[in-house]
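Running this now, will post back.
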Amino acid sequence: MGFSLLLVLAVMLGGVLVAAQGPLYARMASGLSANPLVAVFFAFASATLVLGACLLIGQVRLPEAKQVLALPWWVWLGGLFGAYQVMISAQAVPVLGVTLFLMLVMLGNMAGAVIFDHFGWFGLPRRPVSWPAVAGVGLMLAGVFVTVSRG
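Update: finished.
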């Protein structure tokens, strides 16, 4: 298939780290006036500092202004989407728990992925909706119902 075991393990580690984000942000918010917006600000500020240091250490050459300005407007939505997700995780994880929260995130991920692939949004090649993809989303939905009914 063209991918390595190391890549698969790195992606799985990313999933573990995503699972840790909600509880971390929720704890940060509860310690900072119970305001998720403040927690998101500090989380993104620390991430910006770390990324800036990585750029300096790696001596990465930054793009020219014309390259940045030539990008489609919608690429900047990624940062807004990330801020939204961090903020909602700080609010939702204490109420829903990590498991249900991530089940709902994954359900949204899968539904969005099917739509984005089908229409070729965000510069992706078009991949028409398939029955296996719809079945996968259905199984995720069933997983949410199983998770909710456990309590």
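The chain has a mean pLDDT of 90. More later if anyone needs it.
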